[in-house]
Amino acid sequence: MSVEGSIWNGECWASNGRKVNWSKSPFQVHYRKFNINGCQYGSECSSESQTYWWNEENYLELTSEQQSSYESVTQKYLSYDYCSLKGKEFKECQKENVK
């Protein structure tokens, strides 16, 4: 199973333009031996070229077991999903932008 995610700073929208006081954040994240392959959205690197391992057929969709695991984890641990905010439309959340 692979995980796709982003690390971002939501000051421009999540806090109504106010600076985020990271000392008050509800969690801490520490990375050890972290390695990632990726590219900037919209760049040539993110094309559907088979040159990149993430475009191989076995990464195009989850197996039924992986889908079940994903749903279980999101149900137990997902505390905030800005794509589900009522009255807000974010380009990256639109279904046509998701494979």
TrEMBL record:
Q: What InterPro entries would the database entry show?
A: Beta-glucanase/XTH (IPR044791), ConA-like_dom_sf (IPR013320), XET_C (IPR010713)
The record's GO CC annotations read: apoplast
The segment(s) forming the Xyloglucan endo-transglycosylase C-terminal domain are 49-84
A GO biological process of this protein is: glucan metabolic process
One Pfam family for this entry, by name? XET_C
MF terms from GO for this chain are:
hydrolase activity, hydrolyzing O-glycosyl compounds; xyloglucan:xyloglucosyl transferase activity
The entry's protein name is Xyloglucan endo-transglycosylase C-terminal domain-containing protein
Q: Which organism is it from?
A: Prunus armeniaca (Apricot)
